[in-house]
Amino acid sequence: YTTWGVEPRLTAKNPLGELQVGLRVHREEQDRKQINAKQPLGRTGTTAEDNLRTTDALSAFIAHRFDIQQLQITPIIRYEDIDVERTNRLSNVTGSSSIDNVSAGLGVTYNPTKTLTVFASVHEGFAPPRVEDLIGGAGTVTEVDGEESLNMELGVRSQIGSQLSLQAAYFRNDYDNLIAVGSIAGGSTPLSQGEALFSGVELSADGQWDNVFSRFAYTWLNEAEQSTAYKNVASKAIVGVAGKRQPYAPEHTLTAAVGYEWQGLRAEVEAQYVGEQFSDFANTEQPSADGQKGRIASYTVWNSSVNYAFNRQVSSFVTVKNLTDKTYIVDRTRGIQVGMPRLVQVGVKYAF
Question: Can you give the pTM of this predicted structure?
């Protein structure tokens, strides 16, 4: 996988505020080979895939922030042009496609005091389909639309003394088209798309009291609705029912951590909670025989880390992810996939 590009930007202050102009040229190449050996330790065998996938993208934006005393208003407009190509070297077949988009947005912030900020935004969202989803191995182009949405946010940030910062925000993401669950490249679980609506509340806090610090982030995804029945993009068959909850959209997620630092020592314990979620458009409750359907239970994973700085140049660290070595399901797209087992990392850093 090779990715490269250039991204020049221009920022110019003026009596009205600040102008920003940006351009990005992006190139991505995936040179993929899959060789299936006959033995577990084999290093040669049958070539099942030999693909070259390329993406050439150009994007540009222009924005201007208008400063009106404590009020800042920033309109923005963005243009994107994307060309993709996929070559199957096994059959010597090439397919290509292109997509472009113009999107706009508006952001507003208001600072009635030095420690209080009220913010709001509305903007159009866009994300193109992946090369492997848009173009099949035989070079045929599948009619996968880009993701398009209207996103809104309203929130407040506050600093309480030097010890505590708080943030609360309401969000609403209305998708004219959302690509969800699976990949055509995976074969057994094709891509699907349809309209969807997400809305909820995000809360976060960071605190520091002498040597003790903590952080907290919670998301309540109250609404994650399939606004229309989802359709298989290849066969156009209906695979979901309008009004059902979107798969892989837990209602509650929470991350909380507490730590202690003293001189060169910094230690922390973190808990990550993910609420229960559905794994298919029909919101199937019971597990299927192939493991691709069924409710995914909620889970909590504990992590920890210890860092010690010997001096300004040398420091060491120990991190443990999934501290209790918990086994839990995170995905059913192609059958049951469990989360990462306990992972311990030990290292030393030296700053030159």
Answer: 0.84
